[in-house]
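ASSEMBLY PREDICTION REQUEST
Request ID: AP-0331
Submitted by: J.K., bench scientist
Number of chains: two
Total residues: 395
Priority: normal
Notes: Please return the full assembly, not individual chains.
Input sequences:
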Amino acid sequence: MRVLLRNPRREITIDGRRRVHALLNELGLSREAHLVIRNGELVPGDGELNADDEIEIRPVISGG
Amino acid sequence: MKCRTCRNPAIIDLPRHNANFCAEHLLQLCRRQVEKAIHDHQMFEPTDHLLVAVSGGKDSLAVWDILRELGYRTTGLYIALGIGEYSHESQTFAEDFAARRGLPLVIESLRDDHGFDVPTAARATGRVPCSACGMSKRHIFDRVARDGGYDAVVTGHNLDDEAAVLFGNALRWDVEYLARQLPLLPARGGFPRKAKPLVRLTERETAAWCIVRGIDYIVDECPMAAGNKHLAYKQALNLIEEESPGAKATYYLGFLERMAPLLSGSSAQRADELASCVRCGSPTGAEVATDGSTVCAFCRLSEKARGHEPVPVEMLMSKSARRAAAKEARG
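STATUS: Completed
Returned structure:
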């Protein structure tokens, strides 16, 4: 699957299927500080991500 | 995962509520948390005209959206801070939000209206950019609210913001700041009432509100904020939250319920101790000079910054990045 990461903006490719929580753990990203979006919709922690999905992992922490 | 309320498929898991929610019931939860904050802290009257400080980010657009939905009369205030492309982009998000909903938006520019920008102010005064930025914004919020006759200034500070500030204040045992860290500051001595209706929502929840509602906002982080302490406190609190869901809410809301009342006598200057700035007329707690005059902190910053040649944002970005890298190396 293609994964868009932000701050800084970059794209990575992950092989195979993953659950959302497993993907965040694998990338070392806090569940409390990120949301996962597929086709403009949120995917919950146990949601299954398919190998051909295009997803965005959006950080929600702001520093202002 | 199923929604706790309706058993339809969930779109988000919220461990602090030990529950999952569909889009409809996530919005209901957010709305109810905001209504509870407004009610518990007696923030507004139904007829109040609210000045909503908007940055183009998720929190300020979410609070504007929710207040508008709840039926409040609102006007947005966007301040162009002159932080390069980041400011241009964030202004576009604020303008688009307002235009699509037919909402009034006041725009004030630090560079055009005051003759400087945040990077220049930071360099000219030796302050960290977030400090120069925060002081400028607070001054302009207050003045626009006063001049426009608004009943209150609303900001999008959320539970994570407040918990992080509380953490920083408690690390320093800064009693003065702790005593003032409240979701509602009443009007006093020429300062407008200030309210934070999102204090019961985490930033994961406010971001989810925006995504579900189709609100576009600036996702990129402010380039001046890299490596600031506020972000480090948030990361530390999120580590605790993952181990102990609900910890941030318990920490901050417990402070409001049990600790803040004990500190109420320790709060800042009384209204009758404020003077008027001889430059701009704003109320100020600045010390009176030997000639009897008082100049507020914003006017002092503004005078220094206007006399300095403009500083490009990149100059301070690299400094911030160097500081962050050095900090990381120290562990």
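REVIEWER COMMENTS: The mean pLDDT of chain A is 95.
SIGN-OFF: pending second reviewer
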